[in-house]
Amino acid sequence: MRVLLLALCSVAVSCGPTPPLPVRVMAIVPVETGSYETREVSIQTLSNLATLKGSVAELVGANRLIVDPNDPLQRGGIENLNDEQRYEVIVKDKGTDVRGNFLERSGVYWPADFHTWNMVTTYWNFENAYLYFQDLLASQQPTKTPDELNKMKVMYWPELRINSETPITDNALYLSFVKAFAIAPFSKENKVPMAMNLGIVGHEVAHKVWGKRVYNDEGVPAPLRTWSGEAFNLLKSLDEGLADFHGFGVSCRALSGCRPDILAPSIADQDYAHQRDVSRPDACMDEGLRSALKSFSQDQWVRGRELYLYGNLWAVTLYQAGSKTGGLQKVKSLQVALLAAYDDDKAGTPGLNQIINRNVNNPMAFTPEVVAESIASHIPDIPLRTAFCGEAIARLQLQCARPDCADKMPSCPGTTRRATTPCAVLPPLP
Ligand SMILES: [Zn+2]
Question: Of 121, 220, 231, 378, which shows the fewest CB atoms inside 10 Å?
Fold first, then answer.
């Protein structure tokens, strides 16, 4: 029966005409109750339904990627190769077209097997992440578009091994060093697969936006190669925490509404999902985290949870500043401001890209106060900016001499005061 069904579907889609856009398909999406269910959705950009390729994303199957310092082709360090060479030595199998099987009923395409459900849902998630960033940029200037999100390469179900014999499973990743996304095979997790989770795809797409705008799309960015200590740790945490903040923003596009705990539907460890919740009112720096931020090596930081916990403080600072000032509309204003702060070459309001580039050989100058100032200077709404400054001073334990912090963050208005709850002032560093 199943074989017959698949044969019929192939005729319906791959041999028939490409359906007109938008295409109406069934996918597994978050619905009003918050749970994931099958629903009809409309996809605007999927020009080839059978091979899951469109202007936003192109799925490719059967890739094999190996990162292995003992590989003779990689022994000289993948960071010393250019983008094409690095892709060539890591992507051992370049992959082939995927093939979705659909049945058409009254103009709606129904996936006919598990992988097709997963792939079409994945495409819908990538399209929504694209539309989220397009909307933020258009709010700044109507002609701006997220060009880095055209034809995103999505490796579907690859064999993926990174410095390990064990292949990666149960994950969705953005692999900046080959500028491609990977939807790893499912293995042990029995919750909503990562690629079906709209917020998680939003998080991964946010990494690509960050890489393009903050690191000039460098595959292995210079500061990540050469910085260590607080500057390196801060940079990695910003990438992760701000990706969670944007992932939350992308989640708002679903029928279920916004989901600040984007990991919760997909991982068993609910305590950890809660620690990453961008709305978490109790998120404060503590002495242990402060000491790790200042002292951990690159390796310790990227292997530990502190990386994400410190990133979460940045996400919560933004979320709470918006929420306390005027709810979700103000949170969106902060998403727009944050994206503007990634890359800005105006002298008075340098973006993170410009600050990092200017200080590639002087990482000590890249501090939490400098980052907060750059973000603050891109928030035009003064009460919102004041709230952001107050939350940042308290949650991130920023070090300033003046009560309004204008000595370190001149963009913070004179009425800025450290938010009084819930974060206590930590004792000075020993
Ligand atoms: Zn991430």
Answer: 220
